[in-house]
Amino acid sequence: MLFLSIGCQNKKPATCPVDKNSSGAVCKMQSGLSQAATTGFSGIVTETINTAGYTYVLVDTGKGKVWAVGPGIVVKQGDTVVVSGLMPMPNYKSKTLNRTFDFVYFAGSISHKGQLTSNSPSAAGHGMMGSSVVPLANMDFSGIKKPPQGKTVAELFAQKDELVGKKVMFAGKVVKATFKILGKNWLHIQDGTGASGTNDVTITTDATNKPGESVVVEGILSKDKDIGAGYKYTVLIENANVTLVK
């Protein structure tokens, strides 16, 4: 949804990844690994599976063995890798492998030292996370205008109780895009309004807009949406229609 991470609000620490079908024993996570693993981890590859467009790795971090899957990379047992941009996914069934993982991390990148790999919508077409981010320092929201009958991002948060279940419209810029997670694309939209925690709206959509693009979004507002795996959104616009503003 590989990841991703998709960058959520109120993300809880992940539990220990376990794969009963693995040829390598997966240990119970020791204290500290689950917290670090929500952002990234590194270690030695003990098992690897390559399939169309993406790679599974079982990584021994020194505190536990962690399954992750991300963009295709040439890697072998004994290699040291860095895994980042994570979205935890319990009970994940890979149709390609015909195998169910009790827990796996979808990764935005898997890299050897000094060799970063990144995702794109084309790679994400195999069902993995595709994530790209433009630093907010480079974003100019001065040209964003609230649509007639629309809301600002800050207003969506402030009025979420009365807007829940209703169709809303707002304008902004894509600041992050994650493709093909749980069958959807996940875009983060900001317009320069709101404070930390109320300045970024996540939407699900079929659109594949890129970070930096100006858009108008229309969709149904959900509040306090819990999609599992510790991902909960104060405001989420689902199945949104996205119009590019040129």
- What fraction of residues sit in β-strands? over 45%
Largest sheet: 5 strands, mixed, barrel
CATH fold-level assignment of the largest domain: OB fold (Dihydrolipoamide Acetyltransferase, E2P)
Our measurement of the CA-to-CA distance between the termini, rounded to an integer number of angstroms, reads 28 Å
Q: Specify the number of helices.
A: 4
What is the name of the CATH class of the largest domain? Answer: Mainly Beta
Shape: elongated
Structural class computed from helices and strand pairing: mainly beta
Q: Architecture of the largest domain in CATH? A: Beta Barrel
Name the strands of the widest sheet in spatial order.
1-2-3-5-4
Runs with pLDDT <50, length 5+?
1-38, 114-135
Please provide a written account of the structure.
There is one protein chain. With 246 residues, the protein is mainly beta. The protein folds into two domains: 33-129, OB fold (Dihydrolipoamide Acetyltransferase, E2P) (Beta Barrel); 136-245, Nucleic acid-binding proteins (OB fold (Dihydrolipoamide Acetyltransferase, E2P)). Helices cover 8% and strands 47% of the residues. The protein contains four helices and eleven strands; from the N terminus they run αβββββαβααβββββ. It has helices at 33-37, 121-124, 153-158, 160-163; strands at 40-51, 54-60, 65-71, 80-94, 99-112, 130-133, 167-181, 184-190, 201-205, 214-228, 231-245. The strands form two sheets. Strands 1-2-3-5-4 form a five-stranded mixed barrel. A five-stranded mixed beta barrel has the order 7-8-9-11-10. It starts with 32 loop residues before the first helix and ends with a strand. The model is unreliable at 1-38 and 114-135 (pLDDT under 50).
